[in-house]
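Here we describe the complex-level prediction in full. Unlike the single-chain runs in Section 2.1, the two entities below were treated as one system.
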Amino acid sequence: MTTEPTDLRYPERATIRDVAERAGVSIGTASKALNDNGRLKRETRDKVIAAAQELGFRPNAMAQSLHRSKSMTVGILSTDSFGRFSFPIVEALEERLAEHGIAVFMCNATDDPAREKQHLDQLLGKRIDGLVVTARRSDMRPAIAVPGKSMPVIYVFSQTDDPDALCLVPDDFGGAVLGVEHLIASGRKRIAHLTGPDTFEAVTLRNRGYRAALGKAGLPEIAGYVRYGKWSEASGRDAVDALFDGKSEVPDALFCGNDQIARGATDALRERGLRVPQDVAVVGFDNWDVMALAARPPLTSVDLNLRALGRAAGERLIAMIAGERFKGVERLPCSLVVRQSSDPTQT
Amino acid sequence: MTTEPTDLRYPERATIRDVAERAGVSIGTASKALNDNGRLKRETRDKVIAAAQELGFRPNAMAQSLHRSKSMTVGILSTDSFGRFSFPIVEALEERLAEHGIAVFMCNATDDPAREKQHLDQLLGKRIDGLVVTARRSDMRPAIAVPGKSMPVIYVFSQTDDPDALCLVPDDFGGAVLGVEHLIASGRKRIAHLTGPDTFEAVTLRNRGYRAALGKAGLPEIAGYVRYGKWSEASGRDAVDALFDGKSEVPDALFCGNDQIARGATDALRERGLRVPQDVAVVGFDNWDVMALAARPPLTSVDLNLRALGRAAGERLIAMIAGERFKGVERLPCSLVVRQSSDPTQT
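The structure predicted for the assembly as a whole is:
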C-alpha cells in the first residue's frame, strides 16, 4: 500500500530538469539553450530544444520571471532544530526547488530567538528570493519579521498567528477520522484513544477526529476511554494497564496519537496474552517506519505525507516568488497505511 | 553522563558571532565595524570594538582572507538522502559555519549520480567556497569530481578512495573497544557480539574492536559468539534464540552492533525470563535516543559523537577555505553512555 501520493494538488508538468535529463546535459546548459544565451555548441542547443519539444516543455511566464533578476536561492529556517518530522519535508522541498534551479540555504535556530535573528539577517544579506519556516512541531510560533513584507514566507509544519501568512500543515483531524473509520469498518465498537499531552494542537485535533468518527457511526463515547499521556512507549503501556487491569468490559481497539504510544500499547497487550489484532486492534499515527515496522505485529498507522507537504511548499514558494500571493492555514490530507496490527490478512 | 564533548580537538576561540552577541548587533554589523567598512554609527562601531576587546577577539589572517573575495557559502551534498546519522552532523556543521558568517546550501542526491552531478553544477554556479559530502553510511563512495581540484572538499561520515581527500568518520574500532572493556570491567567473561551484515565497514571495524578488547583482557573468543544479521530488532531477537535455545553455557553479556539489535535482544532476553543486566548485560551502538531510551531497561550504548564530527568538519573546512590542506581518513573518538542495560546502579 502506498504511503505517498505522487502529488496532492499540483499537477506534474515537465520541468527544465526533465529536459536537461532527457538531453543528457546540466540544468544550466538546458537553461542557456532554451533562453538562447550563453555559449553552447549548435549540436547541444539542438539536442536540448528537441528534448523540450518531446516533453512538451514550455518555458512559461512564471519560469521566465523567476529567472530574471532573482538570486535563485531560498532559505529554510528550522526554528527548533531539524528532526524526523522536518527531514522529509526539507528533502522534498529541496528536490522540488532544485528542479527549478533554485538552491536552498539551510539554517537551524535551535529555539534561540537571537540565533534566529542572526540567521535571518544572514539570509537577507544573501538576497534570498523566499523563506520557508519549519519546526519539529506544527504548533503556533511567533511570525518571522521580514522587513517590508515583500519576500514570500511560508510556514510548513509550523503555524503563526499572522493572518497574512501561509501555513501548510497536515490535516490531523482528517487523519484521525481515517484511522478510526478503518477500525469501525472492521467491526470494532469499543475504541479507546491513547494520546499525548493535551497542550498540543495535534492532540486536540486528533481527539476531535476520533469523536467525529465515533459520532458519525453512532458509537458511544465510553467514559475513561480517552487517555492523555506522554508521546512515549511507556505511556502506551501505562494506558493499557489502566484500561484493562481488573476490568470486565475492555476495549476492542486502540486508536493511538502516535506510533510510540501504539508500540508500547501493543507490547503491553502481548504481555497480557491478548492477541493483536484478533482481540484488540491497534492503529498508530505518524507512520514512522522505525516504530511502525519494528512493532510486533507491524502497526497500521496514519501517514502525515510529509514529503507531499514539502513538495507543496516548494510549488507554492515558486508561485509566490513569481508574484502570486497566498495566505491562511491549509491542512493537507493524511493517508492510512494498513498493516497487521489492525488487519490479520496483511503479511 | 554527557554524550557530547564540547570539542574534540579544536580549542574554542571567540568568534565574530560572540562579538556580535555581546555587542547586541548582527554578525554583518560586527564585521563592518571590525573591518572598518560599511556605513555605521560611531556609537555602534565603538560598541563592537569594545566587545571584541573584552572577548580577546582578534580578526586573524584566516578570517580576513576568508572575508575577502569569497562567496561565504558552502554546499553540503548528501549522496543518499539525509537521515538520522547525517542530520546531527549537518546541524552542527551549519552552526559552526554560521558562527563564521558562512551560509550552507543543502543538496540531496538520493543515490542518483545524474542528480548528484546536477547539484554539483548548480553549487559550482553559485561559486561556493567549499563542499561537504555526507551520507547515511560511512562506507566508501566514488570521489566527487570538482573541476581544477582547487575547491576544498571534505567527506564526513563518508569515505572515498581518492588518497588526496579528507574523510572524517567515527572511530568504530575504538568505540567497540570502549563498549567491550566496559562489560569486562563489570566482570563479564562470556561476551557475544550481535551485529549487522558483514558487508559494512563499520561491522568489520566494530568486530575487530570487540576481539581486540577480549584479547587484551585474556578472554577467549567463543565459537559461534559472533553473529552477523540485519540491523534490526528482529535480528537481535533471532540471535538471542540461537545463543540461548537449549544451550547449557550461555553468554553473560551481549555487545551489539547497533541499538536496534540491542533492543531486540533485550526484549528476547526478558521474554525468556532472563534479567538485564543481572543475568545478561547488553550494550548497543549509535546511542540513538529513540531506541536506547525506549528499551526495557534503557540501553548502555556507544555514542558516535556525530555533532562533534560535524563541528570538526566545519573547523576543517574553514581552515581549508583559508588555504590549509588536509588529507587522509581521520577517525574521531566515540564515547560510552552507561545506562541500566549494563549497570543496575543507573537510574
